[in-house]
Write a structure and sequence with these properties.
Elements (H helix, E strand, L loop, with lengths): L6 H8 L4 E6 L5 H13 L11 E5 L2 H21 L4 H9 L4 E4 H12 L10 E2 L2 H22 L2 H10 L6 H14 L5 H10 L6 H5 L2 H29 L8 H15 L4 H10 L15 H25 L4 H36 L1 E2 L1 H12 L9 H9 L2 E4 L7 H10 L9 E5 L13 H10 L7 E6 L1 E2 L4 H14 L16 E2 L21 H5 L5 H19 L1 E3 L6 E3 L12 H14 L16 H14 L4 H9 L7 H10 L5 H6 L8 H21 L4 H11 L2 H7 L3 H19 L6 H13 L17
Parallel strand pairs: 1-7, 1-8, 2-3, 2-6, 4-5, 6-7, 9-10
Antiparallel strand pairs: 11-12
Helix pairs in contact: 1-2, 2-3, 3-4, 5-16, 6-15, 6-32, 7-15, 8-15, 9-15, 11-12, 11-14, 16-18, 22-23, 24-25, 29-31, 30-31
């Protein structure tokens, strides 16, 4: 049975020979439409295109696999209808070689094909993130050490500005942050030099022409506009029937003083207006008979206005023109030194990676770019021209999460510069969540604003209908987003053009509505019941709501399309912060008999069983560490009680805890406890000797087996998940062994860096057959 495509979907499927930007709202059938477009191009009667002549870039490997599977299923269905069609049979064979891939896989394909063009050895490998973290730290130490030895005036001034105390961790983080940001640009060294040059100017007029200053003025004007809105609200409060009328004149003067700030055209006028902005003392009134809440709100808003203006004065209006130019000139030297250090680190880090013959994800993008574009002229190479001839169309999914390097790559292999418009970009800027990974949703918005619905070369099509959700869900989403999402917040104005519209008809269902549950931890009755903890309180409310839904809620079955009773597997709980809430929710839901499972991308290293084994590894490397040693003794590995640890500590008579353990004297401890402690120390010494002989993977295996800890955690509640977490730690040990580092000390550094840079792996996704929520 054919699909009833909407008019807009049919446009996406059938439009040819133009750049297409598709703004596809959540649930709009984006993937289905994209697959249909691809199949349409393959089966086009006039101009059929082989599947391997399309470059189809998806955001994740899973999305690429799903896309390939869907296209394969569509080709198989077409072959059933026409089994003798040679073109279809050819496409089915070509599908395995088609470029349906992530951007990094496409880059890897280019590099493996043309490694000789960028002076790479053909047996390079992609380094694991933990190894890269260690490598970056070691290279950064070398770069800073060399600069400390040279002790140039510019470097020492930079250190004076950014070092804190006796440590230079802040310097390292700053240089690394700038390095990673620079790598999101096509030509990072050029960007670094240009960025440092932004601090060089000879006059206020030249300063005001800097792009960063223009953006700063826009931001400050917006802040002042918000303050003006608060002042206007105070005027309204003072004029309310039960409002503080005696404060009306003050409110009016405040509003008039703020108008010049919000209307400032440039930095100088804004600085002058800030300098001139003063506030009167608030008059008092003893016999005020109005609403006290409104007066307190008035005062609070006025204090917010005054405090903000005070901060703006201190930050942006505290210096004259000459002093400002002097300060900026001094800062220019510091900025240039920061850029120089980032570039020096870049060169040293690249040299280290080349020595080890490894690449990271930034390398994949930049080497691919060097293969496609000449570094000096920025013109396409012969390889890029070959790609342009090969690819009839370049399709990009989740375009809102592309960065500038990826944009340059895809532009290089398309035919746009030659007047051949063959780019297809689909995404939704409202779903862009990867700014922290340096995605550039403004790339999407630039095209969204420039493309039109009538253009013959640069066409924009909007898919607003949501086929995934009921009207009640859509109306709620529209209500919320229309109030909080503006052009300057979220990059899009959530108006009628951006709103969601129902696209599918669902059976009527009583009680189907959106609901807001408010949990007040300060409620006295709840506090008496022991529910003052916000996480536990929310979990209790959610558990009660789930119980109600199972009794009364009916949902549409995905397979039959008919209504049926809700099940646990129909419910998902989304948390703002997994680490702070997940364990509490699992505990409360478990107590209520509600099967639940939490799969996290964070919090893995804080899991009880993982933390215990990592502490064991730390004391195998160095047993003179009080906290890891106490943690191991208290865990099931050591099996010491709190009372026993207290006795051991007391016997040491003020010595550090590790001395109390390692230097325990028999006569100072009860005989049974002494024997138990000596048995532990003997086992520890044995493991330490093994650490000198075995790989980290083998050492971990021996620790888990000989201590019985793996069997212990498997028998605990949630044992499958806990066992999988330890097996994942073994996998990380195996990955470490493939790196250029060796030994227990560096493995602990490896884990520490994974934690520091929040490269976390989540608890293993092992589902109990009853864990549906």
């Amino acid at each position: 049975m054919g699909v009833n495509w909407t008019e807009e979907q049919m446009e996406v499927i059938t439009q040819r020979d133009k750049n297409l930007l598709v703004s596809a709202a959540a649930g709009s059938g984006k993937t289905a439409v994209l697959v249909e477009r691809i199949i349409g191009r393959i089966l086009d009667q006039k101009r059929p295109v082989d599947i391997d002549r399309m470059l189809i870039v998806t955001f994740t490997s899973a999305a690429a696999a799903e896309m390939r599977e869907r296209i394969g299923a569509a080709l198989e269905a077409a072959l059933k209808q026409d089994p003798e069609n040679s073109h279809l049979m050819k496409q089915a064979m070509l599908l395995h070689h088609a470029q349906i891939t992530t951007i990094h896989s496409f880059c890897l394909y280019l590099i493996r094909s043309y490694f000789h063009r960028v002076d790479l050895e053909p047996n390079f490998r992609i380094a694991e993130q933990g190894e890269l973290n260690l490598l970056q730290e070691d290279v950064m130490d070398e770069v800073l050490t060399a600069n400390y030895e040279e002790a140039s005036e510019a470097f020492l001034r930079f250190v004076e500005c950014f070092a804190s105390g006796k440590r230079d961790d802040g310097l390292k983080d700053l240089v690394l942050k700038l390095y990673h940001f620079a790598m999101s640009f096509p030509w990072p060294k050029e960007w670094l030099r240009g960025a440092a040059g932004n601090y060089r100017f000879d006059s206020i007029e030249e300063l005001e022409e800097k792009e960063w200053m223009k953006r700063l003025v826009v931001y400050l004007r917006q802040v002042c506009t918000d303050l003006t809105a608060l002042a206007e609200d105070n005027v309204r409060l003072s004029l309310d029937a039960d409002g503080p009328l005696y404060l009306n004149e003050t409110a009016e003067r405040d509003r008039m003083r703020l108008f010049p700030l919000a209307g400032a055209e440039d930095y100088r006028s804004l600085a002058d207006a800030l300098s001139a902005c003063t506030f009167d003392r608030l008059p008092s009134k003893r016999n005020y008979e109005g609403d006290e809440t409104k007066r307190e709100r008035f005062k609070a808003q006025r204090e917010e206005i005054k405090d903000t203006v005070k901060r703006l004065k201190a930050d942006f209006a505290g210096a004259g023109e000459e002093e400002l130019l002097s300060r900026m000139s001094e800062m220019a030297g510091v900025a240039e030194e920061l850029a120089r250090l980032a570039e020096e680190f870049m060169d040293a880090y690249d040299a280290k990676k080349r020595k080890e013959n490894i690449l990271d994800f930034d390398d994949l993008e930049h080497f691919a770019l060097k293969i496609l574009l000449d570094e000096e002229t920025k013109q396409p190479t012969e390889i890029a021209m070959q790609c342009r001839k090969r690819y009839e169309e370049v399709m990009v999914d989740e375009y809102q999460d592309s960065n500038l390097v990826q944009e340059s790559l895809l532009l290089a292999v398309s035919g746009e510069e030659l007047g051949r418009f063959n780019r297809f970009m689909v995404g939704d800027v409202k779903q862009s969540i990867y700014r922290f990974r340096l995605a550039r949703p403004d790339l999407f918005m630039e095209k969204y604003d420039a493309y039109t619905e009538e253009s013959d070369t640069h066409r924009k099509i909007e898919l607003h209908k949501n086929f995934r959700s009921r009207r009640e869900v859509i109306d709620t989403a529209n209500c919320i987003f229309s109030q909080i999402m503006k052009k300057d917040l979220g990059n899009v104005a959530y108006d009628e053009a951006a709103a969601l519209y129902p696209g599918a008809a669902y059976p009527d269902c009583d009680g189907m509505e959106s609901e807001l549950l408010l949990a007040d931890p300060e409620d006295e009755l709840l506090e008496e019941a022991g529910l003052s903890d916000p996480a536990r309180l929310e979990a209790e409310l959610v558990a009660a709501k789930i119980r109600t839904m199972l009794r009364a809620q009916r949902v549409t079955d995905a397979k039959t399309g008919e209504l049926r009773a809700a099940r646990y597997g129909d419910i998902v709980i989304l948390l703002r912060s997994f680490g702070a809430y997940a364990d509490t929710f699992l505990e409360v839901l478990g107590q209520k008999g509600i099967p639940a499972h939490a799969a996290s991308k964070t919090g893995y290293f804080q899991a009880q069983e993982v933390a215990a084994v990592l502490c064991m590894l730390r004391i195998l490397d160095n047993p003179r560490q009080d906290i890891p040693l106490a943690a191991v003794l208290r865990s099931a590995i050591g099996n010491f009680s709190d009372e026993e640890l207290a006795v051991i500590k007391a016997a040491g008579r003020g010595k550090p805890f590790h001395c109390c353990v390692l230097e325990a004297v028999e006569k100072m401890l009860p005989a049974e406890l002494f024997v138990k402690l000596q048995t532990f120390i003997t086992g520890l010494d044995g493991f330490r000797r093994l650490a000198e002989e075995l790989s980290i993977y083998e050492l971990l295996q021996r620790v888990l087996k000989d201590t019985g800890y793996l069997a212990y955690v498997t028998a605990m509640p949630g044992g499958e998940r806990r066992r999988a977490n330890l097996e994942m730690l073994l996998e990380k040990a195996s990955a470490y062994e493939k790196s250029s580092y060796r030994g227990l000390f560096h493995f602990i550094r490896y884990i520490d860096k994974l934690q520091k840079y929040e490269v976390d792996y989540g608890e293993a996704d092992v589902l109990d057959e009853n864990a549906d929520v």
